Amino acid sequence: MLEGELGENEIDAAPTKSFFIDMLTRDIPLDQAILDLVDNSVDGAKSLRAINGTEDFEGLWVKVEFGRDRFRIIDNCGGFDRQAAKTYAFKFGRPEGAKRTPHSIGQFGVGMKRALFKFGRHFVVRSATIQDAWQVTVPVDQWEVTAGWHFPITELDEDAKVSSEAPGTEIEVNVLRPEVASRFGFSTFENGIFDLIKSKHRQFISEGLSISVNGRHVDATNLALLVNEGLNPGTQNLRFQEESKEPVDVRIIVAVGPSNPRQAGWYVACNGRVILEADRSVVTGWGLLEEQANRTVIPSYHNQFARFRGLVFFDSQDSSQVPWNTTKTGVDQDNKFWQATFERMIEMMRPVIDFLNELDADIEEHSRDESPLNQFVTRSNVINPDGLRVSTAFRAPPRSNFVKGPRMVKIQYSRPIIDVDVLRDAFDVESAKGVGEATFDDALRRFKR
Amino acid sequence: MLLEVFRRLAAFDALEEYRYVGFGSVWFSDFILFHRAIGIRHMLSIEKSVTSRDRFEANKPFNIDVDYRPSSAVLPEMSYDRRQFIWLDYDDPITVDMLRDVATVASHARSGSVLAVSVQCHAVPDISEAEREASKDPLAASAEERFKARMGDRVPSDLSRAQLKSWPLGELSRRLFTSEIEISLEKRRLASPSNALHFKPICEFEYEDGAKMTTMVGVFFDPGEEDRLDACRFDQLEFLANAGGAIYIPTPKMTVKEFRYLEKQLPLPPGRELDLGFIPRGEAGDFAKMYRYFPNFAVVES
Which of A179, A186, A221, A256 would you mutate first to test chain B, the one with the most B CBs within 10 A? Predict the structure, then answer.
């Protein structure tokens, strides 16, 4: 408990450390906490890239390791110095005037501490830049009952894996909370983290950053968008700026993709970090789609919505300007730049949905195999969204371009199998479909002039 | 073989106290076997085909409880008061419903209960589905993507196509079941440590019954009853001899006469070789070791 000089009419409202830790760690799920630590490594990589003037992240790596006994993350992304440790890395909240990493993703000043207190009861942070090296060891149980909100900073251990010769950061939690230890031991959790990093850090991985989870290297993925004669994605570039703040650049892309329901929806990234992927909720335009369709729209392998892809990229040198929430798990819907962007997303979505409905109608009429519009789409080429920079309207060919012969309509009916078999023999055809066609043609011959 | 495993449970507790739970079929052959061979008295058959109910009732050999609902409905609701021998003999390749069934059993089972799970491992339907789609759409989702979409985080995203059929699928299926059990037990332990159980695998089989099939068998036990588990001496099971990994059970193609000819010589006195008569060596194979376990019910009944 903290001691202070309290007057008779004063209430000591200072928080206890255990309350504070409880509140701090409550609002972040375990998997997002791991992502926060990876984000910090990414920021280190971004700083290095800026300092060295290199194009990408080649040569830089982050290793994430966890199991029932401990958690560890280590990188070679430049580390941070004592000054940074003292002024923000170990403070709760980012003080005004603290040095900001341009275009950073770990901006709330709370990610690392939140993750470490969430994972366990004993942790060590070691970091080394080319000029400085230090470590902070926190035995949480002891710290909780000691007065004062400070952490001792010391020299690096002898056997530290980072140093001024190999600058980077190593964070280790060696006493895990039981429920955390339990989850870290599940293969499902490991697979989940692997997939999360793959999608949330997609852009950095594609720019050369090597990330591994328990020794498994996370490979790059690319969102596939389709282009063809008369079919191309729509792109719009916007810029917003709050007075005397850094501007925010926004790029919105809408497109048709492969018929993969898990990938359908909106992807939103802030400063390269994916916040929402394949989102199909009311938060993004998908909700409006459902409103208009008057039902829940669930993309499946065989409906047109499986092909919708929407992407939004927010970028700003000042990471407090982009519209993410504090846990980077969603957008801050109250943010005015998000709201303005949202209006554009809805507008841009409309022509794509219209085209997909046309595609659906064509398939209804001709069947999936025979639909000329579907054949056109499945024979399209795949491109990467990263290359789409210039503002362009979404274009898709009208159904009328593909009319093959006369308009068709499907006839469908049931008859007892015994009877169908009689006609199969009579007309010498193989299938029920054959019987339908043969009997129709036969009747038509009698009546058509 | 399951009979052998079941028999050994007598060291854990009296077999008349156990309940056998299985998936019916009109023949009730497993029920007949367990009742006649080791005197099992409490039995529950889970049968999802409600339309054949009358036929089942007519064919019930003795007083067996039958629940005409899918296992996903029965397993969460049935009683776990007794120690049980549960054999989930699925006909199809692994699905999430099967994994949930197994998790349900693990979360409720009483110490000393045995769980056996059999699945088909010829090929997952995602393969033919993907092939059908690929012919029309080169960008359609692959078999691995479809399987991963069904299974979620249970499988890594770098799953290979080879693991989706034949014996690799069998191995993957057994591993998925074991993981599901372990995770369920872990959650059980965290929620209620005094109620915690461990799971010990006993054996795994691979066999071909038209299609490739695989079975895994294991026992749940409370650490406090570990001595009873040891007394079962599961490691002594004859067919485990050179084990490590799954045991392949061959299905020899022999006539009934040939089968009898070989069977007459068994058990072989030490040093004696099996006289094969005119039976090809390939067919007779491991007969001496496996003969007691061949699922040749026609032979048992005649």
Answer: A186
With beta carbons under 8 A apart, name residues in chain B contacting A368.
Answer: 136
Contact B137 A194 (CB under 8 A): no
A320 and A185 in one domain? Answer: no
DSSP state of A5: -
**Is residue A244 in some structural domain?**
yes
pLDDT tens digit string along A411-424?
Answer: 899 999 999 999 99
Based on its alpha-carbon atoms, the radius of gyration of chain A, rounded to whole angstroms, reads: 29
B157–A191: do the CB atoms touch at under 8 Å? yes
Q: pLDDT digits over A252-307, tens only? A: 999 999 998 889 999 999 999 999 999 998 899 887 777 777 777 777 777 888 99
Angstrom distance (rounded) from CA A84 to CA A153: 12
Among A170, A185, A217, where does a domain finish?
A217
Give the residue with greater pLDDT, A21 vs A405: A21
Range of the domain at A367: 225-402
A185: closest chain B residue by CA: B183
In A, minimum Cα distance to B137 occurs at: A378
Task: State the pLDDT at residue B293.
Answer: 62
* Element at A151 (helix H, strand E): none
Same domain, A56 and A189: yes
Residues near A403 by beta carbon (within 8 Å), at least 6 away in sequence: A372
Q: Provide the residue type at A189 as one letter.
A: F
What confidence tens digit (pLDDT) does each residue in A360-374 have?
999 888 888 888 999
**Beta carbons of A156 and A135 less than 8 angstroms apart:** yes
ipTM rounded to 2 decimals: 0.75
| Options 3.40.50.2300, 2.60.40.1930, 3.40.50.150, 3.40.50.2000; CATH of B2-123+165-248 | 3.40.50.150
Q: What local confidence, expressed as pLDDT, does residue A34 receive?
A: 96
Smallest Cβ–Cβ distance between A178 and the set B138, B141, B190 belongs to: B190
pLDDT confidence bin for A385, thresholds 50/70/90: very high
> How many Cα atoms are found within 13 Å in the side-chain-facing hemisphere of B71?
23
The pLDDT score that the predictor gives to residue B302 is 33
What residue spans define the domains of chain B? 2-123+165-248, 252-301
Paired with B161 in beta bridges are: none
- Angle B295-B301-B302 (CA atoms, 0-180°, nearest 5)? 120
Cross-chain residue pair A194–B156, CB shorter than 8 Å: yes
- CATH number of A111's domain: 3.30.565.10
pLDDT at A96: 67
pLDDT digits (tens, 9 = 90+) for A231-259: 999 999 999 998 899 999 999 999 999 99
Closest CA relative to residue B11, chosen from B295, B252, B233, B291? B233
- B154 in contact with A, Cβ within 8 Å: yes
Put simply, the answer to whether B133 touches A301 (Cβ < 8 Å) is yes
Contacts of B137 in chain A (CB under 8 A): 258-259, 378
Q: How close, in Å, is residue B35 to chain A by CA atoms?
A: 39
Cα→Cα distances A209→A99, A129, A271, A384, A444, Å: 24, 19, 15, 18, 67
Q: Write phi, then psi, for A434 (nearest 5 degrees).
A: -60, -40
> Read out DSSP for A239-262?
EE--TTS--EEEEEEEEE--S-GG
Question: Chain A closest CA to B176's CA: distance in Å?
Answer: 10
In a domain, A5, yes or no: no
User: CB-based burial of residue A173 (10 Å sphere; 0-12 exposed, 13-18 middle, 19+ buried)?
Assistant: buried
